[in-house]
Specification:
The complex is a heterodimer of chains A (about 190) and B (about 300). Chain A is of the alpha+beta class. Chain A is about 35% helix and about 20% strand. In chain B, the strands form two sheets. Chain B has a six-stranded parallel β-sheet, sandwiched between helices. Chain B contains ten helices and eight strands. Classes of the chains: A alpha+beta (about 190), B alpha/beta (about 300).
Chain lengths: ~190, ~300
């Protein structure tokens, strides 16, 4: 009986040690990051570039993609929009053609930054949507060119394109970096 | 003798067993307590990112024909009190008691280490038949998911002149309001144009805009929100802007009194003790609002109008 009780005590002690190692629940909610206003103009200039490739195979969701980009890129008062919010914001998107979407933008309305990834049901739909994303960039440019002209470089160097079933809009402080991160996930 | 010794040994063994069982019970209890405190409470979707889920338009539009009143409601000065850092909970906990005074809103530190106002509660349904017109600051109402986008006509850079002709989703504000027939129409314009339009011109353009609104929705109650303040840093970069804002707000208030519109003093609501845009409300650029600032704004409007 003594041996049994000693063994029981030791077992419970072992259980106690393992219970101390708690794990943080996976963060599936949107991030809010508050960065500082970019006051230095980037040397990146030129038209927004469209790229289309047909080999976009990935199991990563748009939310995971934008989150990965946002881990390296800063947007002031960043707010994430899910599928419905993205469809509301970008004119012309059709809900029945979209599997899921994620878009980060400045929630305060102060900056033109937008980072969006949309997964469509087909490659054709993704390719067709690129023109809508480009129109979105033009709309933002028109809106911000007289409001915060120092920030318009983000739109002038914006990246829009598609990769398989995914279409993207990248207008932020470092569009090349954002595109590199995104392409790395395919 | 042997029997006595044996009895004594058995008693001792029993005592040891009982003691061990007690120890086990204590350890199990500690395990349970650790498990309970290690487990986080389930998080609701923290960020109001789904604009279409933020508000519901229920029921029919309620029309009232009571005469509009002029009410001037200067807000009490807010006090900033720093609390221990807590995660930024932008989605308001619906069990939080509604804030009744601006000074009740304390500051807290969000997950990025920035000072932000406590996310106070407001009744989203209170605004379901209303309409907001404004500039980039007002876009935050739907970008932060505080109100449904359909209740907001706002665009970056909008001023009292351009608001009359700009289109959003293919419609001017007059066309949009004609369709909506809102119970209250809240207008917060003036931050743009102040530097180059002049207060008199801005007010005259505002009167033209109001005339268009009243023509489109004769029963809507006009509510004019004061232009919000700027931080000391913004003022330093734009000397004289605070005086200009104050002068415009004074003219706005006077116009409301003569035209029988409701005036809401958003300016004083958002001030710190030094007379500038409070850090807990102001975004990094010193002009725009943080997410929780919209909670304070809507809660304050609800209190004044309700």
């Amino acid at each position: 009986m003594k041996k049994v009780s000693i063994i029981a005590v030791l077992t419970v002690c072992a259980m106690l040690l393992t219970a101390c190692g708690g794990t943080k629940p996976a963060d599936t909610t949107a991030n809010t990051t508050s960065g500082t206003t970019s006051t230095t103009a980037s040397t990146t200039a030129g038209e927004s570039s469209d790229t289309t490739s047909a080999d976009g195979v990935t199991s990563t969701t748009p939310a995971e993609m934008t989150k990965a980009i946002m881990a390296e890129i800063s947007i002031m008062a960043a707010v994430e929009k899910g599928t419905e919010g993205t469809i509301d914001l970008i004119s012309g998107l059709e809900a029945d053609k979209i599997k899921s979407a994620s878009l980060y933008l400045c929630g305060a309305g102060a900056m033109p930054d937008e980072v969006a990834v949309i997964e469509f049901n087909s490659t054709e739909d993704a390719t067709a949507a690129v023109s809508l994303l480009k129109a979105r960039v033009d709309e933002l440019t028109e809106e911000f060119k007289n409001y915060t002209p120092d920030e318009v470089y983000k739109l002038e160097g914006a990246k829009t394109g598609s990769n398989g079933n995914y279409a993207y809009l990248l207008a932020c402080e470092d569009n090349d970096k954002a595109l590199s991160i995104l392409n790395g996930m395919f | 003798m042997k029997l006595a010794r044996r009895k004594k040994a058995n008693t001792l063994s029993l005592a040891i067993v009982v003691l061990n069982l007690c120890i086990i019970a204590v350890i199990v209890l500690i395990c349970i307590l650790i498990f309970v405190f290690m487990t986080k409470p389930p998080e609701s979707s923290d960020i109001p990112t789904q604009t279409t889920t933020a508000a519901t338009k229920e029921g029919e539009t309620a029309q009232t024909t009571t005469a509009p009143e002029v009410t001037t409601t200067p807000a009490s000065m807010t006090k900033i009190s720093t609390t221990t850092p807590v995660p930024n909970t932008e989605i308001t906990d619906k069990t939080t008691a509604p804030v009744t005074e601006a000074s009740d809103i304390s500051a807290q530190t969000d997950e990025n280490g920035d000072e932000t106002a406590q996310a106070v509660d407001y009744n989203e349904k209170f605004f379901k038949d209303d309409f907001f017109i404004g500039d980039s600051i007002t876009t935050g109402l739907y970008l932060y998911g505080k109100l449904d986008e359909s209740l907001v006509f706002a665009k970056t850079g909008l001023n009292t002149l351009t608001a009359q002709t700009e289109k959003i989703d293919g419609k001017t504000v007059q066309e949009t309001i004609a369709d909506a027939q809102p119970k209250h129409t809240y207008i917060m314009l003036g931050a743009n144009g102040m530097a180059f339009m002049g207060n008199t011109y801005m007010l005259n353009m505002l009167k033209d805009l109001l005339a268009q609104i009243k023509e489109a929705a004769p029963d809507t109650k006009i509510v004019l929100l004061a232009v919000s303040p700027v931080t000391v840093e913004y003022e330093a970069a734009n000397p004289g802007i605070t005086d200009t804002i104050k002068e415009y707000n004074a003219s706005l208030r006077a116009m409301c009194e003569s035209e029988k519109y409701t005036y809401i003093d958003v300016y004083n609501l958002l001030l710190d003790n030094d007379g500038h845009f409070a850090a807990k409300y102001a975004e990094a650029d010193g002009l725009h609002f943080k997410g929780n600032t919209y909670n304070a704004l809507l809660a304050y409007i609800e209190k004044q109008i309700g």
